[in-house]
Structure formats: structure tokens, C-alpha cells
Design goal:
Chain lengths: 169, 382, 170, 102, 382
Amino acid sequence: MGGAIVATEILWWIFAAGIVGAALGVVFSGSVIHSAIFLILSLAGVGAMYLFLMVEFLALVQFLIYGGAVTVLILLALMLTRMGAGEKVNGAQAPVAFMVAVALGAILLSVAVRTAWPGDTGDMPHNIAIEAVSEKLFLDFGAPFVIASVLLLVALIGAIVLARQEDGE
Amino acid sequence: MNGASPLPFGDVFFGWSWLDAIIRIVIVVLLMTVVVVYLTYGERKVVARIQQRLGPNRVGPWGLLQGFADAIKLLIKEDIRPRAADRWVFEFAPFLTFIPVLMVLAALPFARDWGVRNVTLGLLFVNAALGLNIVGIMMAGLGSGNKYALLGGVRAAAQMISYEIPLVISILCVAMVAGTLDLNAIAILQEDRPFLLLQPLAFVIFFTAMLSELHRAPFDIPVAESEIVGGYFVEYSGIRWSMFQLTEYASLWAFSIFGSVVFLGGWEFPMGSDWGWGWQLFLTFVKSLAWIIAVMWVRTTVPRLRIDQLMSFCWKVLLPMSLVQLLMNGFILVYDWPQELLTLTSGIGAAALVGFVLYRTARHPSVAHLVGSYKRAGAAAQ
Amino acid sequence: MTAENVTLPPLAGAIKKALPKVPCAASLTKTDLDLRVAPADLLALVQGLKDHPDLGFDYLRNVTGLDMQENGLELKYHFYSFKHGHTVQVTVATPPGESHLPTLAGLYAAADWHEREAAEMFGFVFDGHPDPRNLLLEEDLRIHPLLKAHPLQPVEIVQGIEDGRAGFEF
Amino acid sequence: MVPLENYLALSGILFSIGFYGVLARRNAVLILMSIELMLNAVSLNFIAFAAYLDPDRIIGAIFAVFVITVAAAEVGLALAIVIRLFRNRATSNVDDAAIMKW
Amino acid sequence: MSIWPEERLDHVDTEGFHTVDMTINVGPQHPATHGVFRMLLTVDGELVTACRPYIGYLHRGLEKLSELNDYRQAMGFWDRTDYLAGLLCEQAYCMAVEKLADIEVPERAEYIRVMLSELSRINSHFMFLGAFGADVGSFGTSFTYAWRERERIYDLIEEVSGDRMFPTYCRPGGVTMDLPENFEKRCREVLGHIYQGIDDLDGLLTGNEIFVERCRALSPLTTERAINLGVTGPVLRSTGLAWDLRKAEPYSVYPHLKFDIPVGLRGDVFDRYMVRLAEMYQSARIVEQCLEQLPGGPFLNPNLPKNLRIDDAEAYVRIEGTKGEYGVYALAKGGNKAYRMKLRSPSFCNLSALSEMVVGHYVADAIIILGSLDIVLGEVDK
């Protein structure tokens, strides 16, 4: 398995670099459309990270929801409002924001690297069976599941009410 | 890969079977190219037959090489990029539409365990991949710098997001009955009868939503030739345009195989898995061909819907019906009712759906009012 | 066009009776009754033709511009009544150089394009027209090709059109 | 193999990039995208912890499912608001929406 | 005092601001425009808020040419107006010249003209059906169906006159040559095919729920508005007014023929389609009656002068063209050329109603409404 592990690590670093690059593209690119496409790349990369963590189910959900729905909604909103051409995208506080974000990133990095995580077995992650996920989700997390579905319903209705074009408007 | 235990998905990328995977992918891609070439030829022939024409008959015997001639012509054609286009978005869009189809093909079983990989979560994987190909279409619509393309992109987005829901629910119905997401296992479960017989309503919904996802008539609104001149790929030419065509036909092919595995029993029904892989491949071929010809048949005879009709059909008809099917499946499974009941109720649902459309077709009073008497007059004079 | 002694159809009498105040001269063409009015009376006449219940000319069939050369431009309107099924032709002559006419677009929506066509082809000016752009010709073109004085192309002269001969010589 | 710290670091970087985006960008849709980045960083964190620290390896995945659900709902609503804003104000700049009334 | 800077609010239009209005250009090179017609549609999303038609791309100066060429020469230009039914235009032109010069036309010639004109009308309506089906989006099947019958009619016209689209068959005073010997047999054969073809198209289009749903209740026109807009022909009849010049102001031999005027109920796009469909039966009926009643005798007035010279005369001759009232205003002032010829073209007047009819409808419907007016650009632009 040694070769495979090395290959996996190399792949991991490639994907991680891709994610970070795409995420930087999201926040630094001048065109809204480019930002949206970088966002797709970045989210797809996160999906690949789920594969590395052996949560295939979640990776597929990530592709399905983010790739197929969320980014498409964003692109659709861009098309409908046709913004992006010549509009100022950054506010005046961008430099301050940059410093704050760098500081935050430094803190997070140091916390991530320097903490000794209790219970870190150091194992290679195993595949998570979808049956186990569903059992847990439907049995132990029944109430949150129902609440989340109600939330989705409310969001659906709210979005319709908000975006609807009333008569005479 | 002799099918005893399907490999986990992660092994596609990180396992030891790299070489094997690459060989299989190359084979499937080559096969796909040939299939697409002959699908275009076949479509032209089928359409020509329905429209009382001859179709391609000059290049090679019966025009069999026409597709290759077209492919060569497209490959050496100048690739034009409009000045108003957003360069990278424009250039990458065709490839982004193509990648998801390739992903789907990687998970499809052509015969028992004959595929690139047998994915445990095959059903979900196919859905996820199919959900992705809209991104490329939107990129094409936004990046072309063309209003027709923009309109086509908006229409495609609205349509594909909407129709994905009934499509996913109809597949979910299958997954409920089958109790697995593995495509091979689903095929094996259909040894005695295909899921088409078990839940015809889900099949009808799947077929309709599939037409919409493929931008096929009567749902070809994003590419409406007579309104927006081809929609999102109006500015493309040469090889990039042919990528879109490739995507269209490859996804038609992928959908036909996927649909025949999920609803028609794939390579399993009616012969069982004892027969050799040759027969199984043949069976897949026949079923997907029937599927494809059905799609082409619909395309030539049915006009296009309007965008609001399309939306209301999805949200007011397809979605409730698919939820009904889902509920019926739930009852059958929870209370352990006999499966014949499912066949019956779902059949009634499908008949209601089809009958609703037929009834609406049959209730045109003004047609009789206007033409009826004149028809008779004409016939009498004749 | 026709001799004075031809008997006019009853429609002429009806119009005279219905619109006594509008001065117009009636005559007959090969197909229809013709009324000749001055540009100043056109709107009153047409309004009367349209609104009077005995006449009821609700449909503007056609508008024809004519170039009568030294006598200025003429415009012929053809009206039809769906109620009574009769037709009348109204002729308006404008003096040379002052081809101003009131627009009928307010009364008949059909007049819009007809008048635009007459305006670009002959140089009429329709006062109050809602959209006086060129219709058939290019929008910035200010020539009036149907005027008799409009110059012909060389090829047309070669074809023998200008000297009045009847086409090619073989 | 890839240690847990790598995932956590990646997630932290992703989160702070999204954070910068939220603060710096003025276009509502861009802010929304940055929030998506942050949410993804969070769920990546959940999954990583679940995979390495939790013997069951499941709870984290379930949390990520909920995060994705909420994100989808949020995007739908937020874009509805953006379109509404655009209709009424002809802008998608959040600074122009500070008026607190339509 | 407001706490908000004023300039921030001055771009806010609180009334009626929707998403960004977009102008899309349809034509002159567009698959949906019938010929070289261009319209600029201002759309809000998918709804048309304004329409600006542009015509004149095919303007050939018909009226000027008719002034410059003598009476016989000028006729060749006239069947290029409504080029789908050239014989009708020839008939109108010849009737105008005959009216000016008081020329008698032999009865046989009148019958031949009427017969061929009605065949041309069927031909034009077939063209409408085919193109309209394509506008609605039926991928050309209606087109090929219609084309099959059109070819048969064109063949027949070619056998009679020697040309298909521009026969130049009529003359002031009759027709150029007599009918071929087997004409009656051939014509009955073609008529049988025509009935079959109409039924086929009826089944393909009217029998399709989507087609009917697209057309029903779309852009209804009231009779009053239609009259005010100067709309004639099938579009006017679809509003419920049975006004056909063949009956209202009978000309030629129409008083001897039995036929009905199909009318619509609501004046919507569907009624326009149905009225044309029904009219085709009526035209076929007329042709059959003509075949039965066809008298012998000369086909051309033998007393015609070689060079036709007409003194002062003025006429406005109108016939029922395929699209509506086809009027020819003619003024003669001596000599062998007309002083002024003016075409009152039905397409031109019907088209002027377009911008009013499409506002408030979907882009896709705008195309259908344009198709339902059945314009011929040769006639619009003269």
C-alpha cells in the first residue's frame, strides 16, 4: 500500500492547492462571473476532500447540491440581474478586511497545527457506510431532520414570496 | 473485476487498479465516440424516415460514413470566438458540459460487471454527475456575450433545476423498492420483471424529465431554433460546437443505458444473468436503441412547449405525481403490502397522467365546429 | 375622370345628405365613387364618413400617393364600410411644394404604415403622425423614388426605359 | 497518509479567505459566495474531526448534511432577496440597501 | 432632513422597475422570420414589452417598375409579390388592366384563372401550415408534410404554364395558353392528395395537445380592432366576421361557385390556423366545381390590340388574396404604360398590426404570432 499512500498524499496536496487557489479567485477576481466559476471549482475541490476522508455519500451530495443547485442559482441570479459589468465589487474596507482575515487565518492555522487533538488515532479513515449514516440520521437525529425540512419549506415559500412580481408593480 | 464485492468508490482514484481503470476508460471513450457518430447518423435517418425524406445516403454505403465526414469537417473548421465573449469562460464551457457525461459513463454497467467501475452509490453518483452538466451550459450562456445565448442559458438553468426534482424523485422510487443504490444489484433485482412493470408512473415521470434534461423536444426550449437560434451554443463553431453535440448525444446514450438499467431490467431481464456477456451486451444495446428511437420519435412529432407551460407542467403535474409514487412505495414497504398493489396503483397513476394529456387533446370543441362540417363537405365533393 | 353626365350612385347622394357642410366634388372611377376634397376639409370629411351611421366607413383599405407633376401631389384614400358594404375613394390634391396633410392615424390605426410609405415614397408630410420614420427605405434616406422626377439608374436607361420605347430591341 | 492537521489547516485557510470576502466585497452575490466558502470550510472541519477523532465516524457527516441543507435554503432565500433588491433599487450593492425600507 | 444622501436615491425608479430590459433582435437572418423581416423585441425576462418591426429588405420598386414598363411587361413583376401564390397576383393585375381598358375576358379563361388561383391559395396555405408548425417547434415534420403537397401543386402548375413559382400565365384578356389535355385527370389526382395532405397535417398539428395549448387564446383580436388595424383575410375572418371578397364583392366566376366562408370564434392564433385549414377544403371544393363547369371556347380574347394603350382611366381592383385583400390601384393617362400602379398588399397591412399584437406575450409566442399572420415579404416590401 505504500505507493498508493504516497500517490494519495501527492493528490491531496494538488487538490488542496487547487481549493485554496480557487477560493482566492473567488474573493479577488474582478468579475462576478469568474468568481462564481471559481466558487464551483473550490466547492468541487472540497467534494474531493470528502472523498479523501472516505465519505463518498457526502461527496456526491456536495456535487449534487452545490454543483447542481447552489452555484446554478447564483449564476441564474447573475444572469437575471446582469451585474458584473463595470460594477465596483470591493468596498473601501478591503485593506482592513485583508489584515483581519490574515490574522484570523494565522490564528486558525496555529491552532490547527499546534493542538494535540485528543483521540487522534492516526488511522487512515475508513469508508462510512451510507446505511449507518441513514440509520443515525433518521433514528437519532429525527427531530433536527424534521426541523431542517421545515426550514427548507419555509425558505422555499419565502423565496417565492420575495421574488414574485406582484401585479401592478 | 469479477463482481463479487464492488469496490468502494474511493478506489477509483486511489486504489491499485489505476491501469485497469485507464484501459476501461479509454475503451468507453472510444466506444462513446463511435456511438455518438452513429447516433447522429441514426437520428438523421430516423427523422428522415418520419419526415418522408432519405437522410444521408452519399458518404459510404447507405451514408454510413456521413458521421465521420461531419466530424472531420467540424474538427478542421475555424474556431471563432466573439470579441464580446468572456474568453476563458467561453472556451472552457464546452468541456465542462462534457465532463459530467464522462463521469456518468464511468458508472454505467453495460453487462454484468462490465463497466469502468461498479460504484456502490451508482444511482446517486449518476444523479450527482448529471446535475453538474448545467454548469457548463450556464457558462456558455454567460460567457458568449450574446443575448440569445444568455436567454438560452437562463432558460436552461430554470428548466434543468426544475426537472431535476421529479427526475431524482422517480429514481428515488426505484432505490426505495430496490433497497440499494448499486446499479448492478438493481439490474439483478429485475430478473423476473423490470421496474417498469412495478411502477410505471415513475417510469413515465423519468422519461419526461429525461427529455427535459436532454433538451429534447418538446422541452427543447433552451435551444429553441425558431426563437433563440440555438440558445447557449449559438456563438460556438468548429470543435467547441462539436463538443456540445458530443455532449448531447453522449448524454442521450448514457441516459438510455441508465434508464434501461433502472427501469427495463438492463442486461438482466428477461434472460437472467446465466447467459454470457455477449448476450447481455446485445440486450443492453437493444434496450437503449429502443429508448433512443422513442426519444427521436417524440422529437419529430411534438412541438415545443412555452416556458411557463413547461414550468407549470413540472411543478403542478410531474412533481405531485412523483411524490404520489414515492408515498405509494413508502406504504408498500412499511406495511409489507403485496407488490401487485404497487403495480396496480402506479399503473392507475400513469394511466391518469397519460389519459389527462390525451383527454386534453380530445376536447377541442372549436376544431369540430370549424373543420368538421367542411371536412364532410370536402369528402362529399370528393 | 369620367364625364359629367354619368349618373352617380345613390351613395353620392347619401354622402351629400349626411355631410352637407363638407365641400367635395363627386365623380366615378371605373370601380368606385370618387370624392375630391381640399386638404383642409379632409379630416372633417373622413370623420364624417366614419362616424355617420348611414355611411359607417370603418375600414381604410388603401392609401395611394400620386405624383401629378406640375399639379402637385395627390393622395387617394379608399374606404369601405363593413356595415353597408360600399366603397368610396377620397382624393386630396396638395399644391406643389406644400404637401402637408393631416394624419388619419388617430382614426384608423391602419393609416400608420400607409402614410409612412406615402411619406417616404413621395415626400408627403403628415402632420401629427406618431412615428414618421422611413418604413421601406433606409431610415436616413431622404429621397422620394416614386416621384416622376426621380432619376433612373443607368441600367434602366440602357434598357430603353427613359426614351419611352417598349423594352429591348432585338 | 494525510494527517488531521492538514485538513484543519486547509479548512482554516478556506474560512479566512471566505471571511475576507465577506468583509471586503460589496456586491451581495459575491458576499453570498464568500459565505458559501466559509460554510464549506466548516463542514470540511466537521468531517475531518469525525473521520479522525470519532470512533463512529458518523455524527460529523450528519452535521455536514445539515450544513448543506441550511446552505441551500440560505442561498435560495438570499438570491430571492438580491433579485428583489435589484428590481426595486437597480443595484446589488449591499451599501445601497442600507435604507431599511423599500 | 433625510439622512440619506440624495444622489444615492436618484437612480431609483419606484414605479415599474423590473429586471433589466433587454433588446433582442429577431431577423433579418433568423430561422423564425419568414423571409427577410426584422423586429426588435424589448423583453423583460421572457415577456415582450415593445416590438419594433423593420421591413424593406426586399423592396424592389414594383410600383416604379410598373410605371416604367408597358402593361404586358410589368406583369412579370407582379407574381413576385406574393410569390407563394403568384397566379393570384397575376389575376389581380390582369383584372386591373382589363378594368382600365374595358377588355372582355372569355369565360374559359376566367375558370382557368380561378382554378389555378385556388390551387395557389392551397399552396400558400400549405406553406403557412408547414412554417407555422416549425415556428411552434415541431422540428420540420409539418414542413416536409406540407412540402410534399406543395410539390404536387407546383408540378401541376408547371404542366399548365411552364413555370412553378412565377408562371406569368395570365394575360390582360385571358391566359397565355390552353390547359393541357390530361389536365382534368391530373388535377383530380392532385386534389385527392391535397385532401389527404390536409388531413395529415390536421392530425399532426391539431391532434397535438402541445400545439393547441401553444396557440389557444393567444393574442386574441376583436373584430372592431382588426378592422381598425386594416387586417383582412383569414386573420379578420378568425375574429368571427365572414368577410371574403369573393362573396362580398364578387368578381370573376365566383358567383357561379358554391363555397363557404370559414370563420373563427375568438380571433386567437388557433382560430387563424383553423380558418386557413378550413379554407383549404373550400378552395379544393372550388377547384372541383371549376373542373365540372369548365366551358369550352377561346382562352384569350381574340380582339386584343398588340400594343395596349389606355386613355384616362382609374380603377381600384381588389381580390381575395391568400393573406387578405389584394388590391391594385391603377391609373392610366394614355400611352402603353400605367401612370401609377399601387399594390395594396394584405401582408403589409396585417404586419402593421404585429407590434400591437405581440406586446405582453412571451418571446416564443411573439414568433408564433408573427407566423400566424402569415406574411410574405415579397408582398410586404413590394
